[in-house]
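Field log, afternoon session.

UNIT: design team B
ACTIVITY: writing a sequence onto a fixed backbone
BACKBONE:
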């Protein structure tokens, strides 16, 4: 559905831009020349859309394997082009609405008015600015990984667990938009925090054909005093690699908890760590997860989908960690309110949330999907510190 929506927006935006620019193109190039430019740009848009579809959805591993740095450059260019044209179409539409006459026009002027000059300048900026923002989001912000330290509150926290450091990684999406050098930086950042516990909450890759083994070989470099644990995300489901990922992670020293719990003894206190597979919105959340609780322990649940939080809190989990939203990936802040696509699907987009005595942390994650860019939602490695609420 997201891919179909993206295709409609891209093609519709291209057609709208042509209609908006056609008079000027025709004046300079003639009608035939203007149409040639239009069809040429539409062809480039179709190629960009095909590349994005291959990168994100199509199970064509033999046709579109990991292409290394050269393939990544092609993917980034396709994302910048698609995002730039889409943003330009939306801004031009806004300019047209804002600049429409509000009252009857006066006598015809012999030259351009100040208003007409301002409208022309605004339209030019509307075309250029989105490409600049898309380039910045793809070439700079996409790989500007932040280390975010967050207090994680627990009522009646046992003294032995106070100050426990938990490194959290999620949504790596290793493949077309994120390669080995970038993932190596992420692993090094997590290890430099000297965590007691490291958690990886799913979406190691994006689609069938992505190099899962190469991803896990690098993730195996994670180090933590009491171990590295994880759960699986929706893209492991899409790639049909859940069992394989669990087995290969175990072989590399990472324990994937699939509706299982592990009781961890730490400084004389107990942390009960549970994990579940991706919780689809089509089914009731956390069926059977109540049996994983350990009375008398601090109960922490790993779930890729943060929407399970209200159910988890009602079951009695003290803490929940997850990702899935990418923090919106492209987020705009207006009047202290953040706007992004994820807000249409979940109230748990990024950061810390509370419900009664329970707390949820949603990470913005590491990688990207659909478009290889981030704006207003930089990727993060999270260090959670258990504190008494």
């Amino acid at each position: 559905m997201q891919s179909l929506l993206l295709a409609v927006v891209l093609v519709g935006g291209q057609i709208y831009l042509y209609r908006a620019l056609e008079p000027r193109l025709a004046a300079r190039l003639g009608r035939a020349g203007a149409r040639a430019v239009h069809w040429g740009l539409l062809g480039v848009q179709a190629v960009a859309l095909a590349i994005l579809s291959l990168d994100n959805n199509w199970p064509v591993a033999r046709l579109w394997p990991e292409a290394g740095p050269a393939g990544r450059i092609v993917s980034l260019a396709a994302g910048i082009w698609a995002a730039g044209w889409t943003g330009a179409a939306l801004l031009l539409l806004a300019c047209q609405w804002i600049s429409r006459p509000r009252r009857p026009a006066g006598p015809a002027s012999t030259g351009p008015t100040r208003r007409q000059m301002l409208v022309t300048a605004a339209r030019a900026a509307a075309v250029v600015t989105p490409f600049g923002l898309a380039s910045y989001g793809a070439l700079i912000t996409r790989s500007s990984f932040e280390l975010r330290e967050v207090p994680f509150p627990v009522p009646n926290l046992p003294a032995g667990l106070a100050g426990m450091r938990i490194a959290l990684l999620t949504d790596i999406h290793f493949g077309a938009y994120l390669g080995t050098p970038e993932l190596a930086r992420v692993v090094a950042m997590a290890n430099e925090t000297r965590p007691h516990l490291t958690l990886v909450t799913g979406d190691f890759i994006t689609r069938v054909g992505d190099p899962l083994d190469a991803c896990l070989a690098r993730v195996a470099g994670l180090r933590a005093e009491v171990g590295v644990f994880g759960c699986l995300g929706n893209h492991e489901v899409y790639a049909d690699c859940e069992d394989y990922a669990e087995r290969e992670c175990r072989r590399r020293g990472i324990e994937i908890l699939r509706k299982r719990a592990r009781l961890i003894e730490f400084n004389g206190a107990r942390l009960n760590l549970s994990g579940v597979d991706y919780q689809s919105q089509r089914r009731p959340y956390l069926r059977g997860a109540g049996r994983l609780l350990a009375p008398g322990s601090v109960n922490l649940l790993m779930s890729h989908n943060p929407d399970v939080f209200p159910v988890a809190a009602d079951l009695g989990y003290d803490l929940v960690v997850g990702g899935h939203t990418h923090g919106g990936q492209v987020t705009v802040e207006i009047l202290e309110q953040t706007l992004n696509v994820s807000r249409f699907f979940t109230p748990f987009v990024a950061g810390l949330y509370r419900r009664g005595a329970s707390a949820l942390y949603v990470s913005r994650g590491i990688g990207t999907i659909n478009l290889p860019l981030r704006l207003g939602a930089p990727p993060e490695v999270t260090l959670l510190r258990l504190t008494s609420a």
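LOG NOTE: The chain has two domains: 2-101+111-139, 147-388.
NEXT ACTIVITY: expression trials, pending approval
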